[in-house]
UniProtKB/TrEMBL annotation:
Name of the protein in its database record: EAL domain-containing protein
Source species of the chain: Hominibacterium faecale
Keyword Transmembrane helix: yes
CDD domains: EAL, HAMP
Keyword Transmembrane: yes
GO cellular component, one term: membrane
Transmembrane segments: 245-273
Domain HAMP: 431-483
Annotated ranges, domain EAL: 646-899
Pfam families cross-referenced by the UniProt entry: EAL, GGDEF
Gene Ontology molecular-function annotations: cyclic-guanylate-specific phosphodiesterase activity
PROSITE patterns xref list: EAL, GGDEF, HAMP
Length: 909
């Protein structure tokens, strides 16, 4: 089908090229005829321009002889001019004559009509009078209108200057009737030759185009042939054929003839092409196998020789063992259909150039010109064996006859017959060394090692065939256990990865959507009711989800499900239906529950090119949905940017720790009794590279999620301990607060690890305060207590950070293994406006005194807050009111100014 389409496209392209060539040829013929006509017109123009010049400068110029007489006269005067001009005035067409001496008219004839002009200056007349004076040569102007006794007459004005020794003495002007002049110019001869004409010049005074003569009104001479007539002023003669340079009927005829010739050439070409195809088919009958359409054995070797002359080839040899027996059982019709399908299967599977031949009833060979390593050749052979699989039904049972393969790499210049013989020998030698039992054993071993790309083929031997089927059945049971949740009988995470990989591998251009459904607060059903109730809720959830996703439904976590949608329906519409289905109450035993779900969506290939990337996207979107408390999120550029930003921060954090460029800042704490700053808290600061810093909370959160928080905590602990060891006494610092993460606290042997780092840095244990959050301590109090007790025994103080934001209870203060409590900003900022919070804070301070606990108030930013806190007899205040976090150098300067007992000679490190 593809070949036929290509042939049709080539024929259409050939026809289009012929039509384009015909159009170009017709255009060139048209241009040739047009050029010939224009050449002829230019010859006529040259002739007529010379005639016009002769008429205007010689035959019609009556002013020229009068000017010569004026120059020859010894004492010219008005009477002389009247006598000399009398014969001229009697000539046909002459309407006016005058004599100018210098710039003054001294005589104008006829006197009755133009005598009033005598005595006037040149500037009182047309600009052409002055022009003749300037250029000192004949000037012809017209047609122009001259007035006489109140009437106007259209004339051509001939001006001849009187010049002696290149000095202007005066001029003679003679006016001739315009119709008389035009008649003598002979322009009507152009009309008789079939031309339209136009004579014009540019008015030297105002630059306008002045028409001298034209053969008709409203004619466009933009494409006319033109010639200049060198008169002062310069005239232009334009002519064009009255029917155009080429008549429309003539042009149409040219195009018709050219296109008709193109059609004849195209018809002849098609006949020759059909003859060529017929002859090629006849030749192919001798070189191809008629049942498959592939090369026969002899001609495959010839074709392979040609390929080997140009470069190396990988030769694959396929054999259908037992084909002769099977072909007799399935009948000629099914056998013919199978053989005819082989070329199409090869073309579908092989994307590179190849040649294929049938070397015998059950033997085939394929030559591939493609660079492959050994593994790629093996994979290609396995893939093509599966592609050529013969599917048959015998005794009402479905069976398969696979093609077994052997291959050999052929160097350039090798002989085809030698290579074919070599691969056949290799095949049968390997078959002799192999046994079905050994092959089954090897495949079972590969399965044990985790190879999932193992298939148990069908065999012609019935006993081996039964054994192979048994292995396949057992394998399916094992896969059921590996890929499916044993309780809910739904696919698991591994099944999702496998199914999505198959979808992408089968058609990587096919789009699909990945939906993640999370049941909000699902643990409450197990905690408040029973595990049985929870299971029934999950069973009902799976039942509803299966309506939408069918077998593409997976349980990847306790209450988190994945579904692959191949529907072309919009995600918003699909999600709306899904949410509507899940909104219906779930009935379990005698109870009814209204589930609240959270749904996130991503798309292949927009958001990931492989199953793992899609799963990462969906999990990132789910985290975003939980942190932002959204019920419906589609993965988008914002999430992608957030993930990229987080990855960049993690990479930057890791690099900064390795290069020791991560900064540790310190926020001083004011000791109210002494009025000094004898305690600071160490805080991490990650530079963003543009003079700003990443959010410390974001950095710590990402470090916890990426497993880097232990390294980060150790880095800060090491830096802070070195600072307090080298500068603490000199700056008057008694306590250094350092935050401790849950990973650092609960890791194996954490107390020894922390003590070793503190001692290695040279810091005094009594100066170190390790801060842990209240939520971490309360949730892990039993495991953490032993570790904290060991640290306290070594002299290290333990501070309970963020106290008062969720787990606060005055009753357990006496039981906590801590020395310091730090009141969270969320509580202290309400003191000025909330009496209840003020009373609660007072009670906390009183309970702390009873239990000998030091109290630190965090986040104090105003004078009012400071006054109220100080009145409660709290020991330390930390906040922007006193000081913001600052780097080591700035802290050193700050403490030298604020602490009276600090060393004034101390310089920042």
């Amino acid at each position: 089908m593809n070949k036929q389409i290509l042939q049709r496209l080539l024929i259409c392209g050939f026809a289009l090229l012929l039509l384009i060539a015909a159009g170009i040829c017709a255009k060139q013929i048209e241009q040739a005829f047009s050029s010939a006509h224009q050449t002829k017109a230019k010859q006529s123009l040259q002739l007529y321009s010379q005639n016009v010049m002769f008429q205007l400068q010689n035959k019609l110029n009556e002013a020229e002889p009068l000017a010569r007489l004026a120059l020859a006269a010894k004492d010219p005067d008005a009477d002389w001019f009247e006598q000399a001009a009398a014969p001229v005035m009697k000539k046909e067409g002459v309407r006016y004559a005058c004599l100018v001496e210098g710039d003054t008219v001294v005589s104008a004839l006829p006197k009755a009509e133009y005598g009033s002009r005598v005595g006037k200056d040149l500037k009182d007349f047309s600009y052409v009078y002055t022009m003749a004076k300037v250029i000192k040569d004949t000037v012809v102007e017209g047609p122009i209108a001259i007035r006489s006794n109140g009437s106007e007459e259209e004339v051509f004005l001939f001006l001849q200057p009187i010049v002696k020794n290149n000095a202007y003495l005066g001029e003679v002007a003679v006016a001739l009737d315009s119709s008389f002049v035009l008649k003598n110019l002979g322009l009507d001869g152009l009309s008789q030759q079939g031309y339209d004409y136009e004579v014009w010049h540019v008015d030297p005074e105002n630059g306008d185009k002045e028409i001298v003569a034209v053969s008709g009104d409203s004619l466009d001479f933009s494409h006319a042939a033109k010639v200049n007539i060198n008169l002062p002023p310069q005239w232009t003669l334009s002519i064009q054929p009255q029917d155009g340079w080429l008549p429309a009927s003539f042009v149409v005829g040219i195009y018709i003839i050219c296109f008709f010739a193109a059609i004849l050439v195209m018809a002849l070409g098609l006949l020759l092409y059909k003859l060529f195809l017929q002859r090629r088919r006849i030749r192919q009958l001798d070189i191809i196998d008629r049942q498959t359409g592939l090369y026969n054995q002899e001609n495959f070797a010839s074709a392979l020789d040609l390929w080997l002359a140009d470069g190396p080839v990988t030769l694959f040899y396929f054999v259908f063992d037992g084909y002769c027996q099977i072909s007799q059982m399935i009948g000629p019709e099914q056998e013919s259909a199978f053989l005819k399908s082989i070329p199409g299967r090869l073309t579908e599977f092989i994307k590179s150039p190849f040649i294929a031949g049938r070397l015998g009833a059950e033997n085939f060979a394929v030559g591939i010109r493609e660079k492959m390593n050994e593994k790629q050749r093996e994979e290609f052979a396995n893939g093509l064996s599966l592609e050529l699989l013969l599917n048959i039904r015998l005794n009402n049972c479905k069976n398969f006859l696979p093609a077994r393969c052997q291959y050999v790499y052929c160097q350039q210049g090798s002989r085809a017959e030698d290579m074919i013989a070599s691969v056949i020998d290799s095949y049968y030698n390997s078959r002799a060394e192999e046994s079905p039992v050994r092959m089954l054993t090897e495949k079972c071993r590969r399965l044990i090692e985790g190879d999932t790309d193992v298939t148990f083929e069908e065999y012609t031997d019935l006993e081996m065939m039964e054994l192979s089927k048994t292995f396949n059945q057992y394998r399916k049971q094992v896969e059921q256990m590996a890929y499916f949740d044993p309780v809910f009988h739904v696919g698991n995470r591994i099944k999702y990865l496998k199914d999505s990989k198959v979808l992408i591998t089968y058609d990587n251009k096919r789009k699909f959507s990945l939906f993640c459904v999370d049941i909000c607060s699902f643990s409450q059903y197990n905690d408040l009711f029973s595990a049985d109730i929870g299971d029934k809720i999950l069973h009902e959830t799976l039942r509803r989800l299966s309506r939408f996703f069918g077998t593409y439904l997976y349980r990847i976590n306790g209450d988190v499900f994945l579904g692959i949608s191949l529907s072309e329906e919009s995600e918003a519409s699909f999600a709306e239906k899904l949410q509507k289905s899940m909104a219906e109450p779930v009935h379990a035993n005698s109870s009814s529950f209204a589930l609240k779900i959270r749904m996130v969506i991503c798309r292949y290939p927009d958001h990931g090119s492989n199953p793992e990337a899609l799963l990462d996207c969906i999990q990132s979107a789910l985290r975003f949905a939980k942190t932002s408390d959204r019920q419906y999120v589609i993965y988008n550029d914002r999430l992608d940017e957030m993930i990229r930003t987080e990855a960049g921060i993690i990479h930057h954090l890791k690099s900064s720790i390795e290069q020791e460029t991560l900064e540790v800042w310190y926020q001083p704490m004011a000791h109210l009794v002494s009025g000094t700053y004898n305690a600071v808290e160490a805080l991490v600061r990650l530079p963003a590279g543009n003079g700003t810093y990443f959010s410390a909370g974001q950095v710590v959160s990402l470090a916890e999620r990426s497993g880097m928080v232990e390294v980060l905590g150790d880095y800060v602990l090491k830096k802070a301990c070195k600072f307090i060891a080298s500068h603490g006494s000199k700056l008057g610092l008694e306590h250094m607060g350092i935050n401790l993460s849950v990973q650092q606290l609960l890791m194996g042997n954490s107390s020894n690890h922390l003590l070793t780092m503190i001692e290695t840095a040279g810091a005094d244990h009594k100066r170190i305060t390790l801060e842990i959050t209240e939520s971490i301590l309360i949730q892990s109090i039993e495991q953490a207590s032993a570790i904290l007790d060991k640290l306290r025994e070594a002299g290290i103080r333990i501070a309970l950070d963020d106290f008062g934001i969720g787990f606060s209870s005055l009753n357990y203060l006496s039981n906590l293994p801590v020395d310091v409590i730090k009141i969270d900003r969320s509580l202290t900022r309400q003191i000025p406006t909330n009496p209840k919070q003020h009373a609660l804070l007072r009670a906390i301070v009183e309970m702390a005194k009873i239990n000998s606990l030091t109290v630190v108030a965090e986040g104090i930013e105003s004078q009012q807050e400071q006054s109220l806190i100080a009145a409660l007899d709290i020991q330390f205040i930390q906040g922007f009111y006193y000081a913001r976090p600052m780097p080591e150098e700035e802290l050193t300067r700050f403490l030298k100014e604020k602490n009276p007992h600090s060393d004034p000679q101390l310089t920042p490190t």
